[in-house]
Amino acid sequence: MGNIHDIARIAGVSAATVSRALNGHPYVSDDKRAAVLKAAEQLHYEKNINAVHLAKGKTDTIGVILPFVSHPYFGFILGGIAAEAERQGYKLLIVQTNYDILQEIDALNMLKLKQVDGLIITSRECPIELIEDYSEYGRIVLCEALAHSRLSSVFVDQFKAFQTALSFFTQRGISRIGYTVLRAEGKSSLARKKAYEEQLSRFHPEWVFDRALTIEDGTRIAGEWAAMTDRPNAMVITNDFVAAGFLLECRRLCFAIPEDVAIIGFDNHPLSGALDITTVELPLHELGTIAFQQVLLKDVTHHELPFRLIHRNSV
Amino acid sequence: MGNIHDIARIAGVSAATVSRALNGHPYVSDDKRAAVLKAAEQLHYEKNINAVHLAKGKTDTIGVILPFVSHPYFGFILGGIAAEAERQGYKLLIVQTNYDILQEIDALNMLKLKQVDGLIITSRECPIELIEDYSEYGRIVLCEALAHSRLSSVFVDQFKAFQTALSFFTQRGISRIGYTVLRAEGKSSLARKKAYEEQLSRFHPEWVFDRALTIEDGTRIAGEWAAMTDRPNAMVITNDFVAAGFLLECRRLCFAIPEDVAIIGFDNHPLSGALDITTVELPLHELGTIAFQQVLLKDVTHHELPFRLIHRNSV
DNA sequence: GCTTGCTCTGAAACGCGTTTCATACTTTAC
DNA sequence: GTAAAGTATGAAACGCGTTTCAGAGCAAGC
């Protein structure tokens, strides 16, 4: 199959000229260019992209860290990243971490080893200090609220979004409010608790349900909710899938929505539209698109995206 | 930051010994290994993975072609692929094609250019002949029924699965059956039409609804269905999301399920469980896992996976 | 005592394209 | 007519780790 030097020999030019001809550089005479192209054709020449990567010191590839690829929340972000990557001629190297720190470190090392030119972290478990240490190797974009001088960020203010959902209830005189979180110990759990305590007189730890990510989690939580003697009559739920599981299980157990329990989800996934669930729309696709744009920028940037509550009939 | 030759100089050994020491090869004396490790530490040495890829002629990376990353069907396959890739220490390079042939070719070229060691094609638009041409560059696994000598495959027999769904209706005396397809001109559409004509006396072209991929498509199709004067009273629907959209819109329009229209979906996504939709379970995660295993095998292999119909209350 | 077989090392080749620098020849420019 | 500017090209350096081959040193086997 040959390499660039074989072509050079056959075409009677130097390897430098072959490289220039093949990459469409100016300053190559028409006859030499033709000779190179002919020789390349003849040898069925194919570039070894790894040699290109080595020589150029970049790979036109961006790494994407995400905990679960099959979850729609991350799927939509990834969709936005992928669309923009394609538009700009970049490839994506994805690492599914399951929130395993070792996996996250593995992904960070791709940046250090020059396997990727930049890194987008859609969600993480490891401490920010660890990520900081990698910022010297390439641009890193986090999908979370952050004001960092070396790490870029793009986010929807989860704190405000949660406040908005709570207010939507309290303004309607609903104050017995429960909510769900993904991880009891996560940053956003703390933020939610803080928002809750700011708006409501009393915090009910038993009205906080954790491990809420999937439809099944919603189903499970509805069961736990139904089994309580002193239960909330409104729920702010992590995402529309959990909300869907919760709502459908409540219905199955013969509770009325929103009379027995009002529901607000997040994301505005089409599912919430189909189930008529009130939700806080998050521009996930756009978040991915912007994350990708930021990862290519020289400078560190921060980008807050808007959200809006969509009132449907689950409240 | 230095390279392997700098380390060699400082440690007073050759580059070959540095390479051996750093990669844990045997036959390196303890003192030289220690000297190398110390020098590497001192220089904050980091391997340039691109040089490794070039030297080794492989990248420990597998390419994954998928039309839409944010659709749960592909999300679950990708989840299976990613889980197995992690287990085996491989990285994944994903290309979202939107069924654009140019994008698909772009992805195939990653194999030719040695950017990936193998390729998994979850779904495609381009002709199989085109893909064949790339089989010499590395193992390619297709997620579709195929008996090819140079391309591996892993699949659920869509034809049989569709037949099973149809039989489930006909055995209950239901014969006015419509169905949905993703793309009117696709291979699976032809297969479905064939299966339909084998089991039912008359084929109704107007009872075939295409572009059925998302919840919204299901909603739209329900509207079209409801507007018909002569409409089927049973539907075999591409996947559980479309089925969910269809079912929920039918309910909204005050039709009863399954009395007015019975529904069978595909995938057994948790959503179908929550909505009590009868579905044909497809082992998508496992499909991904096996696809990944196959891509690493020396030999071409073919793998058919089982499906099973799960009877719920939409029929 | 001599052969066989390890253990350990380094030189050099190998994988391969890009880019800088120097050079030489043409064209414009004034 | 000469300087300045542009066009065209090749040699060589550069990016960098892996692996083969040859050889040296040393211990076990008979």
Helix and strand run of chain A: HHHHEHEHEHEEHEHEHEHEHEHEE
Q: How many angstroms separate the termini of chain A?
A: 67 Å
Radius of gyration of chain A: 26 Å
According to DSSP, the number of beta strands of chain A is 12
The CATH level-2 architecture of the largest domain in chain A is identified as 3-Layer(aba) Sandwich
**Uncertain residue segments of chain A:** none
Task: Characterise the protein shown here.
The structure is a homodimer of 315-residue chains. The first copy, chain A, is of the alpha/beta class and 315 residues long. The longest helix of chain A is centred in the first third of the chain and has 16 residues, at 72-87. In chain A, helix 8 (158-170) runs parallel beside helix 9 (187-199) and helix 10 (215-226) packs across helix 11 (240-252). Chain A has 13 helices and twelve strands. The model of chain A has no long low-confidence stretch (mean pLDDT 95). Chain A has three domains: 4-47, lambda repressor-like DNA-binding domains (434 Repressor (Amino-terminal Domain)); 60-156 and 284-306, 3-Layer(aba) Sandwich (Rossmann fold), CATH 3.40.50.2300; 158-281, Response regulator (Rossmann fold), CATH 3.40.50. In chain A, the strands form two sheets. In chain A, strands 2-1-3-4-5-11 form a six-stranded parallel beta sheet, with helices on both faces. Chain A has a six-stranded mixed beta sheet with strand order 7-6-8-9-10-12, sandwiched between helices. Chains A and B meet through helix 4, helix 5, strand 2, helix 6 and helix 10 of A and helix 4, helix 5, strand 2, helix 6 and helix 10 of B. Chain A binds a DNA duplex (30 and 30 nucleotides) through residues 3-5, 8, 13-20, 22-23, 26-29, 32, 47-57.
